[in-house]
Amino acid sequence: MASLKIMDERKRKEVERICSQSDELKDLQKKIMSAYQNKERAAQITEKQYRQQVSLEQDTQIDKIMLRTKEIQDQIQRESEEARKIDRLDNKNAIQTQIVDRKQLEVEAQEEYLKERDQVDAIIQRMISEDREMARIQNLKMQQAQADMILSMNEKRALDKRQQEMEAYENEMVR
After folding, report:
1. Whether pLDDT at 16 is above 90
2. What's the CA gap between 7 and 1, in Å, rounded?
3. What is the dihedral of CA 106, 111, 117, 121, to 10 degrees?
């Protein structure tokens, strides 16, 4: 076993000596080292490019999410604006309806006022007519009463005159 070890050690030293003395082997070793370094660099570059690609994809995903979020917010804002616009139109229509209703009520109130005023005017005219008629009747009654009084006085005078004439006739007869 010791002899195997010694032999292995000799072979290794022999290989090292041959390698260290041979320029071709040195060049090959340099090329191999250079190839390992190039391979390592290529792996690092590939890793860097992979990380950049992953980062780019993540950025793209984030951008997509942000864009989608922005689109959703814009949609919500548009819907909100549309709802406010509809509310404003509804309010405007309600106000216009109220204005039309109010004008209709004003027209109806004016018509009712005119109707009632005409009725009051008619009642007042009827009362004036009745008052005039009553005044005329009262005036006629007064004239009738005066005429009756005059007639009554005339009859009384005539009666008194006749009575005096009768008394005078009786007195004459008695004499």
Report:
1. no
2. 10
3. 160
